[in-house]
Write a structure and sequence with these properties.
The protein is built from five helices and four strands. By secondary structure, the chain is of the alpha+beta class. Helix 2 crosses helix 4. The radius of gyration is 22 Å and the shape is globular.
């Protein structure tokens, strides 16, 4: 009979470090898929909890606002973005950096007003729409409305009060998702007691 070894087999070490947030990285792709599936589950539960689409839309916006107000710190730390000089720059950063970082897509910024305080973000590919079919009884549901809340919450944290509306939702047989952003006002930084005394 062979004698069993008293040594325990060595545990294999698992490296939990994920690759950087490149859109080509498989971990990043898995992260986006997880967000999409989780988001679908959240919307499905809201459809069970609320009878009317308007209430669901409000709840998605409210949830998004809460996420955005917390997500902005992560975004600023990971992107190394410095302060934007104007609303035009802010919109470009959202479209080219933030959407790429969290959804793996970029948006087109267009339809600026002459005042430069109102524009549209066009997502030609909206990853939230993957695997989604909206039942006919929810014809007024703004499926991607959480994005609006996230933008509003995040911008509020950097002292920008912005009205954000979902004008077109690709889930509803539109080819694109259009988000309209209007800068309402830029909040000033509150002066500290030391500054006020100077």
């Amino acid at each position: 009979m062979s004698r069993q070894s008293s040594r325990r087999p060595e545990k294999q070490k698992i490296d939990w470090h994920l690759p950087s947030s490149s859109s080509t990285g498989s971990a990043h792709h898995m992260g986006i898929e997880l967000i999409v599936l989780t988001y679908g589950t959240v919307v499905e539960q809201l459809c069970k909890d609320y009878e009317n689409d308007e209430d669901i839309n409000k709840e998605l916006d409210k949830m998004g606002h809460n996420i955005g107000s917390r997500l902005v710190e992560d975004f600023l730390a990971r992107s190394s973005i410095t302060q934007c000089r104007n609303f035009h720059e802010t919109a470009e950063v959202i479209a080219k950096v933030a959407f790429k970082m969290y959804l793996g897509v970029t948006a087109r910024v267009t339809f600026w007003t002459l005042a430069g305080d109102d524009c549209s973000l066009f997502l030609e590919k909206n990853p939230l729409r993957d695997y989604v079919e909206i039942p006919e009884k929810h014809s007024c549901l703004l499926y991607s409305n959480m994005i609006c809340g996230i933008l509003r919450g995040a911008l509020k944290m950097v002292r920008l009060q912005v009205d954000v509306q979902l004008l077109q939702d690709s889930v509803k047989d539109n080819n694109i998702t259009e988000i309209r952003m209007k800068l309402m006002r830029r909040r000033k930084v509150a002066l500290t007691a030391e500054k006020q005394q100077e």
